[in-house]
Amino acid sequence: MHALPRRIRALLFDVFGTVVDWRGSIIRECRALGRKKRIAADWDAFADAWRAGYRPAMARVRSGELPWMNIDQLHRMILDGLLPRFGIDTLTEDEIDHLNRVWHRLEPWPEARRGLTLLKRRHVIATLSNGNVALLVNMAKHARLPWDTVLSAELFQHYKPDPEIYLGAAALLGLEPSEVMLVAAHKDDLRAAQACGLAAAFVRRPREQGPKVKLDVAAAPSFDYNARDFVDLARKMAR
What is the pLDDT of residue 4? Predict the structure, then answer.
């Protein structure tokens, strides 16, 4: 950790995996759907495959291969390919649409709400997610997340790690990049933010991809903060 050159006035949060447990939430809801519809599927593998399609789909938008599509649209495109792959053919259109919006109903990590509330005492807190605005607003309502505002890739029609999203978020808040810090569980996201002049806080989420996947959660001296969770980050930032 190195000394911050300026006072941090706003904290921007990656959301999927950093604030919410996307994998556990999706598996739980899919299992309930399976019981209701009598669908026997490997829902753990289904959730992992759905998430695995996320980066390649965004890359197609970023490269210009696809026109701008928000995350709801990309999730649906991926889902339409997964259903036949997993032998799921008994869902109605309304049920498929509801399933696609499971991403609006993700549950937070156990300490996330408390940690965000602590961090909000001293800073503006906001999302900086590839998720679209409607998704993030619905998620905040569902999970009772205390954001001051919701900032989304959709506002800039760029996906992380394009610099337009980091710089655009700082500009919308009326701040210099150095007055803003990204909080994320993903080191590539943090490094992209640092390249744009933002500060960076790494938060460990070792179980984001499930118990069988070993993630790199080692502290990195290049980040301004390394924390166990949001409560730990709040304590460190209050010193």
Answer: 53
What pTM value is reported for the model?
0.95
Domains and CATH numbers, the chain: 10-21+108-237 (3.40.50.1000), 22-105 (1.10.150.240)
Rounded to a whole number of angstroms, the distance between the first and last alpha carbons of the chain is 14
Residue ranges, the chain, pLDDT below 50: 1, 5
* Cα dihedral: 102, 103, 109, 112 (round 10): -130
Kindly provide the residue ranges of all beta strands, DSSP E only, lying in 90-208, ordered along the sequence. 124-129, 149-152, 180-184, 199-203
Over 34-79, what HEC string results? HHHHCCCCCHHHHHHHHHHCHHHHHHHHHCCCCCCCCHHHHHHHHH
